[in-house]
User: Which sequence fits this backbone?
């Protein structure tokens, strides 16, 4: 009887120690799908948890903005950078991006504070996966001596350590 109880206990321990792949769980069969992106052709593509290494690059990018280091910012974006702004403009290329920053920085003295970030990757069939960082930031500007705060959500596309594209969505913060 003791051998039967001991054998049952030992078997139970061994079964409970199996990895997810050994006991049939789907979690061990690939990346974690956190959602989907629907392509322009209507194809559902997996959105998976992304590489959080892009967060470090993004934080350097924000620091360069707060430091007004336009040369560093330009070194962190692709030549063909595309920025889709909250007011339906498209800044295409480094020259246009630089020009916008050179005008904006002295006009309003913007300061950025990152509030949250989530890295994700779109699994693309027959192509290279796309790496994104979705982030919430707060921008404080000083216009005509008055401080104004805005909240933005950005989708930032990375190719390697360079930013290829950014889409900006925003709302003004309520006056306190």
Assistant:
């Amino acid at each position: 009887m003791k051998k039967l109880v001991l054998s049952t206990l030992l078997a139970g321990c061994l079964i409970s120690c199996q990895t997810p792949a050994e006991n049939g769980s789907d979690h061990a069969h690939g990346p974690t799908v956190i959602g989907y992106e629907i392509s322009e052709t209507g194809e559902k593509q997996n959105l998976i948890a992304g590489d959080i290494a892009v967060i470090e690059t993004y934080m350097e990018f924000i620091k360069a903005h707060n430091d007004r280091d336009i040369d560093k910012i330009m070194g962190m974006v692709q030549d063909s950078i595309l920025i889709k702004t909250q007011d339906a403009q498209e800044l295409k290329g480094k020259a246009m991006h630089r020009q916008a920053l050179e005008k904006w920085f002295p006009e309003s003295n913007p300061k950025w504070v990152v509030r949250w970030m989530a890295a994700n990757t779109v699994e693309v069939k027959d192509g290279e996966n796309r790496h994104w960082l979705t982030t919430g930031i707060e921008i404080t500007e000083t216009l005509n001596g008055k401080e104004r705060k805005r909240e933005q959500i950005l989708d930032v596309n990375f190719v390697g350590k360079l930013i290829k594209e950014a889409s900006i969505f925003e709302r003004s913060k309520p006056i306190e």
The two ends are 74 Å apart (CA to CA). Confidence is low (pLDDT under 50) at residues 1-27. The first helix runs from residue 2 to 16.
